[in-house]
Amino acid sequence: MGRTTTGWINGLVGVLIFSGSLPATRVAVADFDPVFLTVARAAIAGVLGLAMLMAFRQAWPRRGDLVSLAIVSLGVVIGFPLLTALALRHVTSAHSMVFIGLLPMATALFGVLRGGERPRPAFWLFSGLGSVLVVGFALSQGLAAAPIGDALMLAAIVACGLGYAEGARLSRRLGGWQVISWALVLSLPATAVAALLLMPSSFAAVEAPAWAGLAYVSLFSMLIGFVFWYRGLAQGGIAAVGQLQLLQPFFGLALAATLLGEAVTPQMLASTLAVILCVVGARRFAAPPPLTQVENAR
What we know:
This protein is mostly helical. It is built from 14 helices and no strands.
């Protein structure tokens, strides 16, 4: 199996894990303050990341890596979780899926700016078409507008796209799980102190679903998902593998159908097929990542 194909498989696993993030966050913010949820999930994952780094005796990152790790921390450890948690106080998780359709484009753009990738023009055609299909499908479901929530989600997409691209660029040398672990550890002093300061005086009112949501976003969304995702982006290319995010809204709907008994309509199946074709087209016309860098991806 080629490195590029392995990268797509790792990326797909990452997308499947991330598909549950927004629903889990939506459940968690019902009982937890959004800011506390953000710092708590990062602190929990940071402790786990530190334990992994110590257990496998990983070398400290270079001084020149600290800026990139800070960008990753601000983008995906703090920025995206906080902004989406705040947004989900104003919009539903289904509504937020509209904006996830824009994330592949944001990731690809930052992949060009920060990762040095140069996809062919046809790539942008398939990427743009896929984004339009996802957004159009979501809007066709009759989602209500919420200006504050929408603005927060747009900001979250920008932060996440930058964090994805920067982390993938660094993963080519450090490795996927090492990058997210170091980013979490870098922010751990601040997130741990903030979590202690913002901790509610009593957890008596917090119900089991909120605890389950916190557990999911701390363990899977904040750590395990990135192990696969950054590895996939580094191996298969930031712009190319990033297009797999176009499938995330449909995976979310599939989870809803499986867990909540919601109907899967012919429109959903047709839209999913069209988006898959766009992902295939984007992969075909995406330039591979620089070989000298990919060879070091672990």
